[in-house]
Amino acid sequence: MAFWLLPIEAGEAGWLSDIFKGSSKDKPPKHSVAPKLVDPPKQSNPSSRTTAPAQAAPAKPAAPSKTRAEKPAGAKPVAMTHAAAKPVFTRCEPQKFRIVLDVGHTAQSEGAMSARNVPEYLYNLRLAKRIEQQLKADGFAGTRLLVTEGKARRSLVTRVAAANSLAPNLFLSIHHDSVPDKFLEEWEFEGKKRYYSDRFGGYSVFVSRNNPDFPTSVAFAELVAKEMKAQGLKYAEQYSLPIMGRYQRPILNRQTGVYRYDELIVLRKTKMPAVLLESGSIINREEEIKMDSEHHRSLVSHGVAAAVKEFCDFRWSLLGPL
Domain span at residue 223? Predict the structure, then answer.
């Protein structure tokens, strides 16, 4: 994953953000570079967002209300509650529905390195372009590819600002996964020392509870994960395991692999429903070969397109045509 997506104020040289390959010592450029976008026709206003329901009054006014202490992110995985997954849908017309496909990382801050020393950014770019092609072929003409330049930290601010200015209905960030340094092993490839970890693999889907439309983010994440599974892919179960330490995340759906990662900037700072997809692990030697194939990119792009169509169709089924 382009795991330098940690909050700016808490950026560490970790791997669950744009930090994996970059260094926390990298100085941001003096000027950010505007992301490259493909302009579609002007669209209508974005979908409305949900607001938190009012808190119910206690049965006995005299008695103090009792609240449960929330478990930290690294605690045992939690189950998804039905109350948290009630998005408020708006009308959808594919030709006017706007989706931003965010290419994780940049050419200057490439994210993780694969087992064969290929930058994650290249995998992200190829897959995002393939998904864009599929969505447009399926009638979603408002799909936009977001390619950002610059160093990791500054690029996160730039991409979020660009996405918010476009006011899309959905935001999907495309990444490829790696592992914490403690799991890396050495091997030789093309006469040079490389690093790999065949221990873990699979896709994963992340949402942030701090997103302004968390319920809709979860709804879309569930559709994406369900379609990944329908394509015969397996999700990365390691994020729910204690062995991951501070990288362990609460799992919202054990059947499909939807996790909560509240601090990711591209998920919590975007003003529309936002999801981050890890297509698979490029630090796993066998899985990297699959990630580099047109077959795998086709599977993922068809899965994402199916999720978007189902998301859109569900809105139609509730509210009817415009």
Answer: 8-23+84-319
Confidence band, pLDDT 50/70/90 cuts, at residue 205: very high
Phi and psi, residue 259, nearest 5°: -120, 160
In this prediction, residue 15 carries a pLDDT of 34
- Burial class of residue 9 (count of CB atoms within 10 Å of its CB; 0-12, 13-18, 19+): exposed
Contacts of 322 (CB under 8 A, 6+ apart): 91, 93
Radius of gyration of the chain (CA): 20
Q: Is residue 42 part of a domain?
A: no
Measured between alpha carbons, how far is 249 from 72 in angstroms, rounded to an integer? 9
Q: In whole angstroms, give the CA distance from residue 77 to residue 258.
A: 11
Q: Does the residue 15 lie in any domain?
A: yes
- The SS3 call for residue 144 is strand
Q: Report how far residue 171's alpha carbon sits from residue 274's, in angstroms, rounded to the nearest whole number.
A: 5
Give the chain's largest Cα–Cα span: 75
- Examine residue 56 and state whether it is found in any structural domain, yes or no: no
CATH number of the domain encompassing residue 300: 3.40.630.40
| 30 within some domain | no
Q: Kindly report, residue by residue over 68-79, the tens digit of the pLDDT.
A: 334 333 334 344
pLDDT in tens, 114-144: 999 999 999 999 999 999 999 999 999 999 9
Domain count, the chain: 1
Contact 146, 101 (CB under 8 A): yes
Residue 296 is inside which H or E element, if any? helix 294-319
- 206 strand-pairing partners: 259, 276
pLDDT in tens, 288-322: 999 999 999 999 999 999 999 999 886 544 544 43
The amino acid at residue 231 is Q
Dihedral of CA 135/136/139/140: which sign? positive
